[in-house]
Amino acid sequence: MSATTSGSMSTLAGIFRHAVLLLTGALLLFPFLWMVSLSLKAPGEIFHTSFFWPAQFYGIENYGKALTEAPLLRYLFNGFVVCALILALQVVLCAPCAYALAKLRFLGRDLIFAVVLAGLIMPHQVLSLPLFIIGYKFDILNTYTALILPYAVSPFGIFLFRQFFKTIPDDVVHAARLDGLSELAIVWKVMMPMSLPAIIAFSIFSVVGHWNDLFWPLIAVRDQSLMPPPLGILAFKNEEAGSDYGPLMAASTLVMLPLIIAFLVGQRWFVEGLIQGAVKQ
Amino acid sequence: MASVSIQCISKDYGQTPVLRSVSLSIADGEFLTLLGPSGCGKSTLLRILAGLEVQDVGSISIGGRVVDGVRPKRRDIAMVFQSYALYPHMSVAANMALPLRMYRLSAFQRLPFLGRLLRGAAQITADIDMEVSRTANSLGIGHLLSRKPGQLSGGQRQRVAVGRAMVRHPAVFLLDEPLSNLDAKLRVQMRAEIKELHRRLGGTFVYVTHDQAEAMTLSDRVAVMLDGELLQVAPPQGIYSDPANRRVAEFIGSPKINMIDVVVRERGLIDVAGATLAIDSDIPTGTPLSLGIRPEALCLADHPGQGILTGSVRMVEHMGSDLFVHLDLAGADQPLIARLLAERASRIAPGQRLHLGVRADRVLLFTRDGQRLRREADLVCRCVTPLREVAG
Amino acid sequence: MSEPLVFTKARTGSSVIRRAPLLAVSPARRQALAMTLAGLGLAGPAIVFLLGLFLLPAVAVIFVALTDWQFGAVSFSFVGLDNYRELFADATFRVSLVNTAVYVLIVVPGTTLTGLAIALLIESGNSCRSFYRAIHFLPFMATITTMAIVWEALLHPTMGLVNQLFAAAGLPTANWLRNENTVLPVLGLIGIWQNLGYAMVLFLAGLKRIPQDLYDAADVDGADLWIDRLRTITLPLLGPVSVFVVIVVSLKALESFDAVKVLTQGGPGHASEVLLYTLYRESFEYLRAGYGAAIAVVLLGLVVSLTLINTLIMDRKVHYQ
């Protein structure tokens, strides 16, 4: 704001800014609040009042039902396992490759980078059909492996790490070599500790994406005990087959909770990660 | 054309004071430089002059009119930024035309497409285009008008920035380190061009820099600022040879002025590292003083004697025409630096004992708290006669 | 048992001797060779997976699209471009294509403009920036599957909050998700709700990159009203970011699936049938692999062309930075 804007004008502008942002913010947040609100209401009350606050606190019944009638904890557990393993695999595979692309000069490097870029623009859903066939041939459908393997390597991860590694001076690498570190040791002992922001950003990107993914689990697993949260919720909804929204909303709240907590704790990293993620080109 | 009056300006950023009651008058048509190290508040003062920031205390007048609370565009000023701040998406012509468009066209006339149809708009636009190309030609950038800033060299961008400021014929030009993004060679060339520009336009220039050479070569007067305070305002030569206090003396000049703590032995005589210098008898015995000797105020001497400093050479820096000799004096923790003509002192080597005479008329006296003691002919030089001729 | 071991050792020894001529090669060549080995060794595992999980499947999709293969079938035959011919003759697919276009045309301008407006508002003041950024961003990281269920509850024809409010305000109510005319706009609104925060964050990043000096220069040059600042500096300098946002949001919109799957299953009729949902149904519900692959190829083509357009525009705008 210009320093010379008169005081009353800027006060007015400030009020306008807050008013609009609070309104849009409330509109955007409303579904979340409604979700929590419904998860605390009794079945009879759900559609007969438009008020947030439940007249009768029915939370224990709803959340109890969500946890007992559907294997919700199992879904959450599946989600954690799948996301953690995907992330671990991605980091282990992507970091050395990114290092080679960023810091080594070798025959075929440009070709490899072209392959990474090609993978980067490929929407994963397009590949679901052949991946399904591969899964079928190797008889890994309906296992954790089927949920994890297709995401074992992330072109975006390679790309992001490569960009970050490029900003680390070559002298650091040279010094590490003089100290007798192998190339692989340089990746893990030198590059990775120096790339913490990129790692965190990528982790967030990866975990949020895979926690929320519905498309591939829908194809890859049938067994309830293997379902990640979104697919589990969908199954729960179809089972209920009605409008018993209380337990469904309770389950939804529990599924969203880890992400929301993580988001509130690391808001800055989330946004940074997304911006990093955006700068794909 | 306008004079500028700055009265008791203070500003704090939170707890940190950036400007402490700065007062300064700038005459109509004067070229005044605000000189100081980075963080001294000189840019803040310039931005307050421009109206981009507001002072906490004090008042600014431009052309006799108080401009506190007046928007930048109504202050009759133009500014050249350190980064040039050219609009990257506009051509050079559009960059230079923007201030004129903003002043002369109404909001409706500035509407895209539609504005051109409004009465008068076409005529005003044509006038603006003409003035822009005239100004551009006078700066030698007439052939660049259709380029974007991204396609220009550093020097060309600098000219465009100056052109954008010139085109409005402002009463006061504010320049914020305009040469600091140029390479050394170009900087010297642009320095000359800015001086020429000031002569030609005759406007009031307020120029901010941390570069002493720029300040010395360009200015009518230099205002030295340190830590938010204005320490001295004087013509360039005055700032160098007649500093108001120790801080100015130490800031101006490269290599730095030699400062030696001394005590008056008896009226008229002080001891310096084993040698004795004669000074004005007014200062009472036992008064602690600081002696400021510029490196070029030292000259070679053949043998020790009164007024001759003797020490061993620590190192010699060859600068081409001159050389800097670092001399360790007995009892001094800092080496004394002397600037000697290379042709007269070619055989000086580290470890050698060397005698240096002090040119009396160039010695500066300060109290220990940094105040300047102004007395003419305080000291008598004891240089041996033939060497004095050499030094002269 | 011991003899083969000795033999192996002997072989190893001889290989060492055989490596000796390598020493005669120039040191630079040797170092280049070592670098290549190290590079390939480090990149190798990732590349194997990349080829196996991305490139080969992509080739396979294009290949399968030329066959009449069905999941479970033992044999298949090449049918050339028949799948594509059938695809573009298929009313359902054409509807799906049009629906996707309509959906993208709702989501992209809606998301971009609101995202820009909110980013500008947030950046126009200094207070509560990260708070506003957080609350506007939250929907983007939400699990769409669960949020779709919330939207279903909100949009419930008789008991949903939306219809209750509309009725109370005297506005027409509707069975939003079961009405051919409303279902796509409603899904579009949900898409905007979801992606707006993402656009906002990208615009905020773009705004941060505009140097303060330019605004100062504009102040001095007389462009000091907010509308002038917006027109002379902010909007032109956000140009490249805006292109990027439009493309990225278009890609997101093209790939939307979850809300359709949960809320409408493409219905009523085919009114909310979008490309990815059609792809899913043909491939994995009707098990028509060849036909589904052809849809995948169409989708891939759209995505790749959007990305190429983006790259082209970005390359042309380099001088902005």
TrEMBL record, chain A:
Record InterPro entries: MetI-like (IPR000515), MetI-like_sf (IPR035906)
Annotated TM spans: 12-34, 75-99, 111-136, 148-165, 186-208, 245-265
Subcellular localization, as worded in the UniProt entry: Cell membrane
Topology of this chain in the membrane: Multi-pass membrane protein
Keyword Oxidoreductase: no
Domain of life where this protein originates: Bacteria
BP GO annotations: transmembrane transport
Domain ABC transmembrane type-1: 76-266
Keyword hit for Cell membrane: yes
One Pfam assignment: BPD_transp_1
Family note: Belongs to the binding-protein-dependent transport system permease family.
Protein name listed in UniProt: Carbohydrate ABC transporter permease
Natural source organism: Bradyrhizobium uaiense
Automatic annotation (TrEMBL), chain B:
GO biological process, one term: carbohydrate transport
GO terms assigned for molecular function: ABC-type transporter activity; ATP binding; ATP hydrolysis activity
Gene3D superfamilies for this protein: 2.40.50.100, Nucleic acid-binding proteins, P-loop containing nucleotide triphosphate hydrolases
Coiled-coil region(s): none
Pfam family, one: TOBE_2
Membrane-related topology note: Peripheral membrane protein
Record keyword ATP-binding present: yes
SMART domains per UniProt: AAA
Keywords: ATP-binding, Nucleotide-binding, Transport
Annotated localization: Cell inner membrane
Keyword Ribosomal protein: no
Domain ABC transporter: residue ranges: 4-252
Domain of life of the organism encoding this protein: Bacteria
CC per GO annotation: ATP-binding cassette (ABC) transporter complex, substrate-binding subunit-containing
Alphabetical list of InterPro entries matching this protein: AAA+_ATPase, ABC_transporter-like_ATP-bd, ABC_transporter-like_CS, ABC_transpr_MalK-like, ABC_transpr_MalK/UgpC-like, Mo/tungstate-bd_C_term_dom, NA-bd_OB-fold, P-loop_NTPase
Family: Belongs to the ABC transporter superfamily.
Task performed by this protein: Involved in beta-(1-->2)glucan export. Transmembrane domains (TMD) form a pore in the inner membrane and the ATP-binding domain (NBD) is responsible for energy generation.
Protein name: ABC transporter ATP-binding protein
Organism whose genome encodes this protein: Bradyrhizobium uaiense
